[in-house]
Design brief:
Blueprint (H helix, E strand, L loop, with lengths): L1 H9 L3 H22 L3 H18 L9 H22 L18 H8 L3 H12 L4 H8 L3 H20 L1
Helix pairs in contact: 1-2, 2-3, 2-4, 2-6, 3-4, 4-7, 6-8, 7-8
Length: 164
Amino acid sequence: MDALLVKRAQKNDMDAFVALIEKHKTGLYKVAKSYLRSEEDVADVMQDTVLSAYEHIRELKNVSYFKTWLTRILINHCKNMIRQQKRCIVSEEVPETSDTVPPDNREFYALVGELPEDYRMIFLLYYGEGFRTGEIAQILELNENTVKSRLRRGREKLKHVLCY
């Protein structure tokens, strides 16, 4: 189904592109939220991601990798925003309240939050979004064996957190 929509979107079919974004927006939000704290930053990054995807969708060679490609664009925008924020000096920090995570997923996100950053994104993509290790390796530009070992080590860390 996605492949047909992507092909239509590559031929400037706006409805197909909108349908693709609607289908993947929840997953994109979760990934962006794992990188960024502020809802405004997440919204900005998602908007930039949609714009970049729209401008470059004709460059996507393999339509079956649309979700991976879109997630990679999002992660790049998140990293760019983090870099920009490091350059700025924050004069006052206001704690954010985040009630945007559905109640049934809060435990998952709380557990994933216990993991070091290297493991956190891999867990979110693997368990939260259903990507395979090969796809995660592509998205994060890592070796697939690195992804597998971080999943294994992350599980061990979570087992330690849950058992003690």
